[in-house]
């Protein structure tokens, strides 16, 4: 049980809606374990109140905050400084308050890459198909194209061509990205990729179909579905095809760990935070 006293400081998350968030479980477990006098709370902030909420952080002596949908892009304009990667992405998910200065970071893409490192998947020289160019897809795509080790190629596809074009424009100078505008082109691409990433919401719904024709998968393709609240049709297809696969739970974990380290400057208790996340997800799933 976290003990709150006159010196306890608040860290939290801004979003709307926010009741679904699992972040408090991750961070409060770590704060308690390391005996940090911090508590992590969710704040349901509507878009019209975002500027006021962010500008209140210093006044309320809040050292940091997470930002989630629908505020990741809009929050950028209310900050004093933006980390170069977050600036390239055009969105933030973490704010650090230090000496009155608000600095924005984006740990989503870095959390994605860290989750692969832990799994032992090496990105160097890989050809990757990214399906989905929304908030998560944008973060993953930009980070993949600018990260070390270097990938060989990133195919970018979204049903909304405007979104995929926006992501392509952000990374085209790396000479690693290829824009895919027609679904019919995917058949050929599956013959050369090493990895498939689903960064769309398809799979979050109980009856959502597989995002691709299952027959396109071969066992040499690593399948990463960022949906984590259920076993999706894509993950089921990956299992059937003998593909290595993973869901988005570790991405959620590591983006949180990276934010935790930005706020506290301390090494995160990874396994403890992983256990807290899994327990929170199990509890939330059982309540449905």
Verbal overview:
This protein has 288 residues and is of the alpha/beta class. It folds into 2 domains: 9-107 and 250-286, Leucine Dehydrogenase, chain A, domain 1 (Rossmann fold, 3-Layer(aba) Sandwich), CATH 3.40.50; 122-243, Rossmann fold, CATH 3.40.50.720. It has 10 helices and 12 strands. It has helices at residues 23-33, 50-55, 84-89, 108-119, 135-146, 161-171, 186-189, 233-241, 249-264, 270-286; strands at 9-15, 38-44, 64-67, 81-82, 94-98, 101-105, 127-131, 153-157, 177-180, 195-198, 222-225, 245-246. A 6-stranded mixed sheet has the order 2-1-3-5-6-4. It has a 6-stranded parallel sheet with strand order 9-8-7-10-11-12, with helices on both faces. Strand 8 (153-157), helix 6 (161-171) and strand 9 (177-180) form a beta-alpha-beta unit. Helix 4 (108-119) crosses helix 9 (249-264). The two termini are 26 Å apart.
The fold-level CATH name of the largest domain is: Rossmann fold
Kindly provide the radius of gyration, computed on alpha-carbon positions and rounded to a whole number of angstroms: 19 Å
For the termini, the CA-CA separation is 26 Å
- Which sequence of SSEs, written as H and E, runs from N to C? EHEHEEHEEHEHEHEHEEHEHH
Any idea what the CATH superfamily of the largest domain is called? Answer: Leucine Dehydrogenase, chain A, domain 1
Q: Tell me how many strands there are.
A: 12
The CATH architecture of the largest domain can be named as: 3-Layer(aba) Sandwich
Assembly type of the chains comes to single chain
Low-confidence stretches: none
Helix residue percentage: 25-40%
| Number of separate domains | 2
Structural class: alpha/beta
CATH class of the largest domain: Alpha Beta
Mean pLDDT: 95
Question: What's the helix count?
Answer: 10
> Quick one: biggest sheet?
6 strands, mixed
């Amino acid at each position: 049980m976290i003990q709150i006293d006159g010196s306890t400081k608040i860290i939290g998350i801004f979003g709307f809606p926010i009741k679904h968030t699992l972040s408090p479980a991750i961070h409060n477990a770590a704060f308690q374990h390391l005996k940090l006098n911090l508590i992590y709370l969710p704040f349901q902030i509507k878009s019209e109140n975002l500027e006021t909420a962010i500008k209140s952080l210093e006044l309320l002596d809040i050292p940091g905050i997470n930002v989630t949908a629908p505020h990741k892009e809009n929050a950028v304009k209310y900050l004093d400084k933006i980390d170069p990667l977050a600036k390239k992405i055009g969105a933030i998910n973490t704010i650090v308050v230090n000496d009155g200065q608000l600095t924005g970071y984006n740990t989503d893409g870095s959390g994605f890459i860290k989750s692969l490192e832990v799994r032992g998947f090496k990105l160097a020289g890989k050809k990757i198909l990214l399906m989905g160019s929304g908030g998560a897809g944008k973060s993953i795509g930009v980070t993949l194209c600018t990260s070390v080790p270097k990938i060989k190629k990133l195919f970018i596809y979204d049903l909304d061509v405007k979104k995929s074009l926006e992501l392509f424009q952000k990374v085209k100078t790396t000479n690693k990205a290829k824009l895919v505008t027609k679904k019919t082109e995917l058949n050929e691409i599956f013959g050369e990729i090493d990895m498939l990433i689903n960064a769309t919401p398809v799979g979050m719904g109980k009856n959502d179909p597989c995002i691709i024709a299952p027959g396109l998968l071969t066992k040499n393709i690593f399948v990463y579905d960022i949906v984590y609240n259920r076993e999706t049709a894509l993950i089921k297809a990956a299992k059937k095809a003998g593909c290595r696969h993973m869901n988005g739970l570790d991405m959620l974990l590591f983006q949180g760990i990276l934010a935790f380290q930005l706020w506290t400057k301390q090494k995160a208790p990874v396994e403890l935070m992983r256990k807290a996340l899994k327990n929170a997800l199990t509890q939330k799933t059982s309540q449905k």
